[in-house]
Prior knowledge:
Elements: E1 2-9, H1 20-32, E2 41-50, E3 53-60, E4 63-72, E5 76-83, E6 86-96, E7 102-112, H2 120-124, H3 128-141, E8 152-153
Antiparallel strand pairs: 1-7, 1-8, 2-3, 3-4, 4-5, 5-6, 6-7
Amino acid sequence: MYQLSRTVPVNEPGKVYLSRHDVWTGLLMKAQNALPYVPQMQKCEVLEQGKGWLVRDIVFNNTPLRERVSFEPEKRVIFDRIGGVELGRIENVIGEDDRGNLTLTFAFGLTRQGLAQGSEAEAGRNFRPQARSTSRATTSGSTISSASRTDWKWSPSWQCSPTMYI
């Protein structure tokens, strides 16, 4: 499994101030239609929707995938890859740093069909540029500037729990 997380500050000096609700609204928009936020995505079609979730078909880097998207209001959006050759989970989490400033964390835990876990082939599969450009597009779409940041955090035992976001 390829695992990666990155946390960026939401508000920077000289930029438009965003509240937690503003960021949440942007994440809801991204869940409904990620095309303006994710440059590598060619398709994003919501198939079903219920209270606190939706299912969508996407095409990412010319690869068709299905995602179940779950919402924890004002806190986290979870994108579970449930169909296609690249399965796993992506999370977008609104948090706070140690000074109480808003942050946005992008966490990825993905596997690719046909690549054995822990194999050299899996290690050679580099999701980092995809993850980096997705986080840049998402944050710039929310008027958050993170283009100069390279503070990616590798997580050797990535698990999906609220306590992993530091």
